Amino acid sequence: MRKYLTEYLAALEAKLASGEGIDYAELEQSHLIMIQFMQHERLIHLLVTMLFALVFFLVMGIFLFGEFIGLVPLLALILGLLIPYVAHYYFLENSTQKMYKLYDEIHTRRQKKD
Are 60 and 72 a contacting pair, CB within 8 Å? Predict the structure, then answer.
C-alpha cells in the first residue's frame, strides 16, 4: 500500500506541475474516489492498531499483576507487530492529509478554469 500511494501521489503532483491538458473536473472526481479508498484503508488500519494496542496493554496488565513470566515472549511479539502498525498508520494519516491539500488545489484550479 505504501508503494501504491507514494506512486499515486508522485504521479498526481507531476501532472499538476505540468498543468498541460488536464481535465480538472475529471481529475477532481477520480481524486475524490482515491481519497475515499485511502480513508477506508486508514480506518481499517486504525482499528487494527487500536486492537493490537488494547491486546498489548491487557497482556501487559496480566503480566504485571499475575507475574506470569511466560507472557514475555507474547508481549514481545505483540509489540513487534504494534510498532510497524503505528508507523504504517502514521504514513497513511499523513498521506491522506496530503491528498486533501491536493484536492483543494485541484478544486481551486477547476474553479479558475470554469
Answer: no
Put residue 68 in one of left, alpha, beta given phi > 0 → left and psi -120 to 50 → alpha: beta
Classified as helix, coil or strand, 113 is: helix
104-111 contacts, C-beta under 8 A, 24 or more apart:
105/16, 106/16, 106/24, 106/27, 106/28, 106/31, 107/28, 109/16, 109/22, 109/24, 110/24, 110/25, 110/27, 110/28
Q: What is the pLDDT of residues 66-80, one digit of tens each?
A: 888 888 999 999 999
**CA 32, 38, 43 angle in degrees (round to 5)?**
125
**0.85 exceeded by the pTM?**
no
